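Possible regression after last week's pipeline update?

I re-ran a chain I had predicted before the update to compare outputs. Posting the input and the new output here so someone can diff against the archived version. Not blocking, just want to make sure nothing changed silently.
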Amino acid sequence: MRRRRLVGVLMGALLGVALTGCQQADLDALDRRLAEALAPELDRRPVALPEVVSLPVLQYRYANARSPFRFEGQGFGGQRFGQGSGLAAFSLDELELVGVLGRGQRHWALFEAPDGHLYRVAQGEMLANPPARVAAISGEAVRLEAVAGKDYRWKERVMRVGE
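New output (post-update):
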């Protein structure tokens, strides 16, 4: 009994919704409203522009200076290096290997530059101009891979302490 009553109520509601959707729509009013909304305005008044203020032109004093975010030179094998600073300011023949430091398995080579400064270099770092990469450091020798000649191939060179 309850089920029949529930089905009857639902059918009545569905019939009411269907009949409400079928009533005559007032389409003329909708057409008028759309025409008003889409019609161009005939009474457009010009908008006053703001006053143009002329500002002084500022000169950036460091425009021609070197950018700290850009490298000076491109190294070989994807490595980049700066020119004219540290060991890159000297040729490989001007540098003198004066010693090797070690702590555990890590080693550093000590190079003396012609200007009297002492530089500590680890394996894999670049030095000299043209560039040379420190390939290996042992207790008594440093193996360098340097670019030599016009073909720009890596050429191995061994420097020993006290030579």
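Follow-up from reviewer: compared with the archived run. Strands lie at 73-74, 80-81, 96-103, 106-112, 118-122, 126-127, 132-137, 141-148, 153-160. Marking as no regression found.
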